[in-house]
Design a protein that fits this description.
Layout: H1 2-10, H2 15-45, H3 52-73, H4 78-97, H5 109-137, H6 143-165, H7 171-180, H8 182-196, H9 205-217
Helix pairs in contact: 1-9, 2-3, 2-4, 4-5, 4-6, 4-9, 5-6, 6-7, 6-8, 6-9, 8-9
Length: 231
Amino acid sequence: MIRAFDLAIRQLGDPRLRGIIWQSLALSLVLQIAIGVVAWWVLQSFATFQWNWLNETIRWLGGGAVAVLALMLFPASFGIVISIFLEQIADIVESEHYPKLGRARGVPLWTGIRSGVVFLLTLVALNLVLLPFYLVALFIAGLGALLFYGANGWLAGREYYEQVALRRLDPADVKVWRKANAGVLWATGVAIVFLGTIPILNLIVPVLGVAAMVHVAQTLRPPLKLPAGPR
């Protein structure tokens, strides 16, 4: 996994990736702003109590809370970004490091976008469900971070791998390969989510994550039993 991210970082200077990086930066910023606006609206909606002092407290704390929520939910936007640029990024990485693989059959754009939207909604829902546990975990050092990175990393690793693997494998094959390498994919997802919570760096994480996952996919161990059917 470390080697995968090292190779991905080294290739970020590839001229073929620069345009994609700028486009993903713009889209990531738009999504970040949108998430912030939605988070602000949700918080302001709670400031409807009959006690003015409580409403004012909620509004006063709203700015900091919006920043925290936007940071927490930012990984949810990754699915949309990678669904649009995945094919281009993966093709560039494979042509540079794995030319013998040949051209992938790819994933239809709308299929990828639908998958990205489902991933976004799932991740948002997961974090909203876990929000009370995050608040409780604030009183136990490190528990909140473990919970956040563990849960979101599991979903991110699954989404990134499936998007990359479906370019070459049937859905049934992708499922068994994913289960056989659950630990590696989970760790890769945690790394992606962790990088996604670092300001500035998080803007290029969708590109970096796809590139790294292409390398990870080439190192996975085969499942003990593949599903029957034509290849």
